[in-house]
Specification:
single chain; alpha/beta; 60s Ribosomal Protein L30, Chain: A; fumarase; 3 domains; 5-stranded mixed β-barrel; 4-stranded mixed β-sheet; 14 helices; globular
């Protein structure tokens, strides 16, 4: 029996799925984070997971993005061999039209992050197209589609190696995970692809992330093949590293490990790791010719009721009056509530500023004594002053940090995850400070922003420099003025604790 698939049905289904996953976490993921939250012994990691869970419920209620990075769209399409198409365009073009409609939806604008000419002008395509599309032709008369939106921070931490056939996959993975740092926003999932060729290993690692979180069920029934044995071994050993939520040190780094394999050449063992972040976003639908296939909203009862209190010893800071001398007392791991005016800027703005400094040009904003927040926010809708505005990965700004601190008099920086050694050295040299906001809590963070306006480089779109006026924005002192980093001390401390507890 042949099925006729209409173009508009596919477009509408893709657009609906992408809107849906922008604000609804998968139920299995929320349950896994909540279980990790309940058993977590590291207060810093527990606080980070609390913010992720609170943010998730807020997004489900408010239909706004979980993370300001609304991802690069990846689509896996299984086309039944008995399908016919009622299309005026190519299948690629129809999928991309669905992406375009989703990302420009007036009630829930999503951030356009895709740049054409990636090694040249890097111009934003303005509608987040094109998607990355994978096809399989399979028996049947339906079109089975998985849609995912992958954050750039987690995608940037992907790893690949062509191991020798006798090399240990476990040893390689355990070597790579610490190198990935916390920029992929743990706790999350690891997709691991083994075999095939270089491109096949990467593709099946990405596809593995579409599977549900079910490691506890696997532990209960036991492994039945080598891929499942690897899942169980890596789940235990990666969590023993003590990296923890947001890299702050703790019991849970991964919520699940997924392994897919494929036959390979006798001389090869290709292995890929692709992590999924705390903004896990994927949906599945099937087109059978009866019309569009739309997502079913979950019940808000699926979300736990979490409260998060900052505690009595929190340091409250007025950004309008804070001085470089003040930050010298701030301690690693300390919770700080920021109020007042801060600037924003990420990769493109930093490059532009450093180029201007090197050319002897005056910057369009005075940064002396200021704090800069590494963020590219979502456009606001309705009564919002700004859309979801969580941090981006701070290590990408390390190459600019020495120049910025030396030439502008900048006092502090706010971002996601750890700083690299170059960034830490510059912070120590100039007595600055680096504060960490929770990745995966973008909507929650945006509620602390009371006013926002573009003050420089409007042509950069979401990478323009804004001035935010914030009230009680929660952050953690991640690198103090002496260069001590909680992303180094925290995981080391918790790794020792986990190993010691296991030995008892």
């Amino acid at each position: 029996m042949t099925t006729l698939i209409r173009q508009e049905d596919l477009i509408e289904s893709v657009a609906d799925a992408l809107q849906f996953i922008s604000y609804y976490h998968p139920k299995d993921f929320i349950q896994a984070v909540y279980e990790a939250y309940k058993k977590e012994e590291s207060q810093a990691a527990k606080d980070a997971m609390a913010q992720i869970l609170i943010n998730s419920r807020m997004c489900a209620e408010g239909h706004r993005p979980i993370c300001q990075d609304t991802g690069i769209v990846t689509v896996f399409v299984n086309v039944g061999m008995n399908v016919k198409w009622d299309f005026e365009t190519s299948l690629d073009d129809a999928i991309n039209e669905g992406v375009r409609r989703a990302y420009t939806h007036p009630d829930n604008m999503l951030r356009a992050s895709i740049l054409a000419d990636p090694d040249g002008k890097r111009e934003n395509t303005k509608d987040n197209t094109p998607a990355i599309i994978h096809y399989k032709i399979v028996p049947g008369n339906t079109v089975d589609i998985h849609v995912a939106a992958k954050g750039g921070g987690s995608e940037a931490k992907s790893k690949f190696a062509m191991l020798n056939p006798s090399d240990s996959v476990v040893d390689w993975v355990l070597k790579m995970i610490p190198q990935m740092g916390a920029g992929w926003c743990p706790p999350g999932m690891l997709g691991i692809g083994i075999g095939g060729t270089a491109e096949k290993a990467m593709a099946i690692a990405k596809e593995a992330l579409l599977e549900p979180v079910d490691i506890q069920e696997l532990k209960a029934r036991g492994a039945s093949n080598r891929a499942e044995e690897l899942r169980l071994e890596l789940f235990e050993k990666v969590n023993e590293l003590g990296i923890g939520a947001q890299g702050l040190g703790g019991l849970t780094t991964v919520l699940d490990v997924k392994v897919k394999d494929f036959p390979t050449h006798a001389a090869n063992k290709p292995v890929a790791i692709i992590p999924n972040c705390a903004a896990t976003r994927h949906a599945h639908f099937v087109l059978d010719g009866s019309g569009p296939s739309l997502q079913t909203p979950p019940s808000l009862d699926d979300w736990p009721e979490i409260t998060w209190e900052v505690g009595e010893n929190v340091r409250r800071v007025n950004l309008n009056t804070v001085t470089p001398e003040d930050v010298k007392d701030w301690q690693p791991g300390e919770t700080v509530l920021l109020s007042g005016k801060m600037l924003t800027g990420r990769d493109a703005a930093h490059k532009k500023m450093v180029d201007m400094i090197n050319n002897g040009e005056e910057l369009p904003v005075d940064m002396k004594g200021r704090f800069i927040y590494y963020v590219g926010p979502v456009d606001p809708v309705r009564e919002e002053v700004v859309g979801p505005a969580g941090p981006t990965t701070a290590t990408r700004m390390d190459k600019f940090t020495h120049t910025m601190l030396e030439k502008t008099g900048l006092t502090g920086m706010i971002g996601k995850a750890e700083r690299g050694q170059a960034g830490i050295d510059a912070i120590r040299e100039f007595g600055a400070v680096y504060l960490m906001a929770v990745g995966g809590a973008a909507y929650l963070v945006s509620k602390a922003i009371k006013h926002a306006e573009v003050v420089a480089f409007p042509e950069l779109g979401m990478e323009a420099i804004y001035e935010f006026d914030v009230e009680d924005m929660p952050v953690t002192v991640a690198v103090d003025s002496r260069g001590s980093s909680v992303h180094q001390t925290g995981p080391a401390e918790w790794h020792k604790k986990i190993i010691a507890a296991k030995a008892v």
